[in-house]
Amino acid sequence: MTSSLDLGTAVSRPAASQGADFRGELLVPEHGDCVDPELSIVIPACDEALTVGDFVDWCREGMAAAAIQGEVFIVDSSTDATAQIALAHGARVLRVPRRGLGQAYIDAVPHIRGRYVLMGDADCTYDFRRLEPFVRGFRDGFEFVMGSRWKGSIEPGSMPWHHRHLGTPVTTWILNLLYRSHFSDIHCGMRGITRDALVRMGLQSASWEYASEMVLKSVHMRLRTTEVPVAFLKDREGRVSHHKRLGWLSPYQAAWINLRAMFIYGAEFFVYRPGIVMFALGLLITLPLSVGPITLGALHLSLYTMLLGMTLTMVGLQSFFFGCLAQVLHDYTGQARRRWLRVFPYSRTALLCATAFAGGVVLVALLIAQWVSSGLALRADRTLYSAVIGLMLIMMSFMTFTFMLLLHAAALRTTSIYDRHE
Fold first, then answer.
1. Percentage of the chain lying above the pLDDT 90 cut
2. Is 240 exposed, middle or buried (0-12, 13-18, 19+ CB in 10 A)?
């Protein structure tokens, strides 16, 4: 095997920002390295000696056709000659431990020099000779340029049936439902993003779910986004895909962790609007019964109905509060944080909560006084119904006060990069 030092100059650059466990070595080719790249093609690779040489050549052909200066940057964790072959074809190589697909991109960020970043695979399944749509998207001002195989072409035999007709369409539909987005292919590995947006995005996923994290955060960050067609090709003869290398369960594990990322970053969908609906419905049931039972024809609404309404009110309020916190935790623009801090300022919220709490205590105290004066006999009269409202006020005031404290704490901890750059 040819030494990497015979093909390029090895430069060791430990990245302190990525933790003490990071061990990386940057290898720069002696010939063909771009001095001032506008585009960085950043590609994780693991044992891709069969295809990486042609892939780098494809990238150079694609950049020439798109009239853009760029670099090919391979993040390599191979045990074969992938790094040496990539260097020989003029790519930069960052040698890293094998820690996951998403982690490879995280490790690469400090070394990326281009203004625009294009991602993909080194297996020649995405046709990097056709880069012009991505370059045009960047130059038109888009910050996130997502590839779509459904808008491009899928070579027969390149994608398993359950991936093409079940896995990708279903998970794409779920993501669009959760985030009210309009992507057609969220798992397309060929995608572009500006370096500034990638840094602000702060990727955290170390494995396959990085792909969903990028899409989800692009929505939260309100990046200017477009989709462009890409060509997807089948594996070359003799190459085994990473999913097949990891076993038959690997695609299902990847789907599960991608769904997990969607649900975590999209928690607001499950709590915010459903919480508002439950809260409003609960109040609609509870408040009319505060004066006592109500009969509507054959329908008799009494204390049990009121307790149901109170339960809906409390669950709805808690869900709404969770939704507000989810918005703040995933807030990249500062708008959600500023909005809820205006709605729930500390002094005014604390005063209103204290007032509501005191009012609730008074209503409950009236019931207790009646109970004691009647010889511990509880009567289902108007006082009992008012006491239910009192209990609800006590719980609502406590929940609102604690939510307000958590909101202000979260706001202190989630000052976004966007705000720091304002």
1. 60
2. exposed
Q: Please compute the mean of the pLDDT values over residues 164-185 and round it to a whole number.
A: 88
Tell me how far apart the alpha carbons of residues 160 and 150 are, in angstroms, rounded to a whole number. Answer: 14
- Cα-to-chain-centroid distance, residue 54: 33
152 has pLDDT over 70: yes
Looking up tokens 């290398």, which residue turns up? 245
Q: Let me know if domain 4-265 sits in CATH 3.90.550.10.
A: yes
Mean pLDDT in residue range 251-276: 86
- What is the CA 66 to chain-centroid distance, rounded? 31
Let me know: does 297 contact 334? Beta carbons within 8 Å: no
- The 8-class DSSP code of residue 266 comes to T
CA distances in angstroms from 379 to 307, 315, 324, 382, listed in the order given = 16, 28, 40, 9
Query: Side chain identity at 31, as an amino acid letter?
Result: H
Sign of the C-alpha dihedral computed for residues 304, 306, 307 and 309 taken in this order: positive
Q: Which two tokens stand for residue 196?
A: 């500034």
Domain limits, the chain: 4-265, 267-421
pLDDT score of 298: 87
The residues with which 93 forms a beta bridge, in sequence order, are 27, 74
Asked if pLDDT for residue 287 goes beyond 80, the answer is yes
Give the DSSP letter of residue 126.
B
User: Which amino acid does the sequence have at 55?
Assistant: F
Whole-angstrom Cα distance, residue 52 to residue 188? 19
Could you give the angle at which helices 132-139 and 52-66 cross, rounded to 10 degrees?
50
Residue 113, burial from CB neighbour count under 10 angstroms (0-12, 13-18, 19+): middle
Degrees, nearest 5: CA angle 112-188-74: 30
Query: What is the C-alpha to C-alpha distance for residues 175 and 248, in angstroms, rounded to an integer?
Result: 25
Phi then psi for 272, rounded to 5 degrees?
Answer: -70, -65
